[in-house]
Specification:
The protein is α+β, with helices and mostly antiparallel strands. The chain has 13 helices and 18 strands. Strands 3-4-8-6-7 form a 5-stranded antiparallel sheet. Strands 11-12-10-13 form a 4-stranded antiparallel sheet, sandwiched between helices. The protein has a 4-stranded antiparallel sheet with strand order 15-16-14-17, with helices on one face. The chain is globular, with a radius of gyration of 21 Å.
Length: about 350
């Protein structure tokens, strides 16, 4: 099923006699059974006001279309939505609705927040087929349920997104990425923490043990970037000599970090969310075939042998692990959160027709 309008989407949901498995651009497999429904027909930018830094777009709009429109005005989305196709071997088209449904966020999350932090409005169809609107086109306080934040990352289990609104940002004039070589995971975490807590506005920090490289990125006006990069290099001198990458290499590196290209190869891939200071110990416990640290160590990608139960290896820690390739395995919820989730689903989808969404 491929509705072309919000009204058609609502009619389909109202008439559903069983679960609906929703997909946007089919770039990520999700564990949902039911009648297939794609939001790809709900496409197009409905409002873009560059002067107000505001973008309103239908959920099925391809990310490439949005990025091209923003680039033409010297702007960008604050977050860096991951393209899952390389990691998962899919051939679909990434859409903005899929990014919101999964709260997809890239390396810049350490400074600008997740996808939900830029989201200011949503329209969606709940499990009863009702069209619900929350938020708007300006940042403001809300009362009652903040459905904007609630829908981001809900994986289509509370409603099927039809339209989303964002606050966008001016694109950076330039960027500088400094590379440190040969650091251990523990040394890299300390170096990234030093950069991220410095006054030099580092907005991304990652480490690839296989490449033996640690990267820190600065963005902004050319003069400011040059000054801050020089000062940051001095601060990082305790960890080794830094190399500044050229712009092409910098863009390539962060695209690879965003899309977890280091996870290429056979096996299951997991995402671990944890305190950066715990990253060295968790990497050691994981016994992984490949590792990539993003967010200064707060996000750990690992590739392990197929069928490995990673959570048993990791043991108890302050965070969670999610398998994203080799079968999606979401982290178990603690009882209090599980009860809250069940209560919300009972309100928004009392018939149980929303089986979940893919990106």
């Amino acid at each position: 099923m491929r509705p072309e309008t919000e009204a058609e989407l609502a009619e389909i949901v109202r008439g559903a006699n069983g679960p609906l498995a929703v997909q946007g651009g089919a770039t990520r497999h999700m564990p949902a059974e039911g009648d297939g429904l794609t939001t790809a027909g709900l496409s197009g930018i409905t409002l873009y006001e560059p002067g107000a830094l505001t973008l309103v777009v239908r959920a099925g709009t391809p990310m490439a279309e949005i990025e091209a429109a923003l680039e033409a005005e010297g702007q960008r989305l604050p977050f860096e939505p991951m393209d899952h196709r390389g990691l998962l071997g899919t051939e679909g088209v990434p859409t903005i609705g899929g990014a919101v449904a999964l709260n997809v966020s890239g390396p810049r999350r350490v400074t600008v927040g997740a996808c939900r932090d830029s989201l200011i409005g949503v329209r969606f169809v709940d499990g009863e087929g009702r069209v619900v609107k929350n938020g708007g086109r300006v940042m403001k306080n809300v009362t009652g349920y903040d459905l904007v934040k609630l829908l981001a990352g809900s994986r289509g289990r509370l409603g099927i997104l039809s339209e989303v609104s964002f606050k966008v940002l001016p694109a950076a004039a330039t960027e500088a990425t400094l590379r440190l070589d040969g650091l251990s995971v523990a040394e890299a975490v300390r170096a990234m923490a030093s950069g991220l807590t410095s006054p030099f506005e580092v907005n991304a920090a990652a480490h690839d043990p296989a490449a033996g490289a640690t990267w820190l990125r600065i963005e902004g006006l050319a003069g400011s970037v040059d000054y801050r990069a020089g000062e940051l290099a001095g601060r990082l001198a305790a960890f080794g000599t830094t190399t500044r990458l050229d712009l092409a290499d910098s863009a390539r590196i962060w695209r690879g970090v965003r899309d977890a290209e280091a996870m290429a190869g056979p096996g299951d891939v997991w995402r671990i969310h944890a305190r950066p200071s715990h990253a060295p110990e968790l990497v050691a416990r994981a016994g992984a075939e490949a590792v990539l640290l993003d967010w200064g160590g707060g996000l750990i990608w690992v590739r392990v042998a197929e069928g490995t139960e990673l959570r048993a290896r990791l043991g108890s820690f302050d965070g969670h692990a999610t398998r994203v390739r080799g079968g999606v395995d979401l982290p178990p919820e603690v009882p209090a959160i599980a009860a809250l989730t069940a209560g919300l689903r009972a309100k928004f989808d009392p018939r149980g027709v929303l089986a979940g969404a893919g990106a």
